[in-house]
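Cross-check.
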Amino acid sequence: AMSFLKRFPPPADGVRHQQPDTEALLAGRSLGSGTLYIAESRLSWLENSGVGFSLDYPTISLHAVSRDLSAYPREHLYVMVNAKFEEEAKEAPMTEGEEDDSDDDVEPIAEFRFVPSDKSALEAMFSAMCECQALHPDPDDEDSDNDYEGDEYDVEARELEQGDIPSFYTYEEGLSHLTAEGQATLERLEGMLAQSVSTQYNMAGVRTEDSIREFE
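Predicted model, tokenized:
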């Protein structure tokens, strides 16, 4: 049995797509047939016996529909993962220290193929993967905070150079651009609200004085 296969309940929350009768292969070796769950938190595959594995989206570097029958005889969803699985880890034992630096550009990679019995489901599987992957932006964040700050700085510098040329924004940047507009709208609304509240307050004050006079 493959050591990374575990028994766990199928995901219940945020499942964007569920594909039964799907064969999973790791590095060309079949793990059997089971159900692929494309959930918002992670990608899970469970064999019909209830044993399987999960992949976190930040570790998935590539997913694609493969229709190249020379690479594999059936159309499937190809997923490349930056992680070590099973005996791949045993092949190249890494010593701590210097070798880590030289190993930076050679990331561990595992290749999974998910082959549904119903190949017409591939587009839906691919779309669901795209949606879920978009919920987990910037896998590089985990590498190192310093690297990330550097990247952010570069992005700003590039934007300044480009001026008004439309540029591609990451999910987070897009959010901050929206926020600037949203902020202005919010401030306007808050101003209007504050005015109407003070008007009500004055009116209430007037009413109170009137009622005091009447009382006297």
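The domain at 6-87+107-135 is CATH 2.30.29.30 (PH-domain like). DSSP finds five helices and eight strands in the chain. Passed to J.P. for a second look.
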